[in-house]
Amino acid sequence: MLRVATAECFTHGFVGREIHASASGYTGELGSEILGTELEGKVSVVAACFIPTVSGLRSLLGIDPPEPDEVSKSGAKAYREETDRKVAVMMARAVRERTGADVGIGTTAGIGRGAICLDDGEITLLGRTDVHANLLKPDERIRKRQLQGIKRSLVMFRAYFRCELDELLEEEWVEEVTRDLP
Q: To which protein family does this belong?
């Protein structure tokens, strides 16, 4: 059984929830629109964490992320896009290692497009949203970016689960792939 853990910021834990719904065979309102029941009995969610703050990243994941460019009124970190990409990788790797999962998924978005990372210790996939938004200036783009981030995270995980990485890499939103081959 494939074990997955998520450390999520702008996707608010919904990626882990959707994977769990599919793995549990939930249908209807409880089910996953994107994954269906494809993962039933084949995947286990070790943890699905919503971690919007730097202090949360430090205490829960044991990482030392860069200081945020800005901080929201609620204390949420707000990095610019380039730093979000680096932090998403840190989050995915740390949640995988910390929980003993086979796969870690990290998502974060502050100012710009959202960053999505999937890491299994050998393969690191880095994707992004197309939607630009600013966490410090909330408007409808925040929600659009979140929904696209959830969908793309699930599409990325599904491609990984199905061993369809070559097809995934044809998507323009998958920015980087690192394969550490023996």
A: Belongs to the UPF0254 family.
Write out the H or E segment, with its range, that includes residue 173: none
Token pair recorded at residue 59: 């205490």
Pick the closest to residue 115 from 129, 104, 105 (CA basis).
129
Using CA atoms, how far apart are residues 160 and 78, in angstroms rounded to an integer?
29
Condensed to tens digits (0 to 9), the pLDDT of residues 144-177 reads 999 999 999 999 999 999 999 999 999 999 976 6
Q: Residue 32: which of 54, 16, 46 has the closest Cα? A: 16
For 2-179, give the CATH class.
alpha beta
- Tell me phi and psi for residue 101, to 5 degrees: -75, 160
Q: Among residues 14, 57, 5, which one has the least CA distance to residue 32?
A: 14
CA proximity to 117, closest of 143, 84, 140: 84
Ordered DSSP codes for 50-114: E--SHHHHHHHH---PPPPSEE-TT--EE-BHHHHHHHHHHHHHHHHHHHT-SEEEEEE-SEES-
pTM over 0.70: yes
For residues 83 and 60, give the distance between their C-alpha atoms in angstroms, rounded to a whole number.
20
3-state helix, strand, coil in the chain (%, to 5): 35, 25, 35
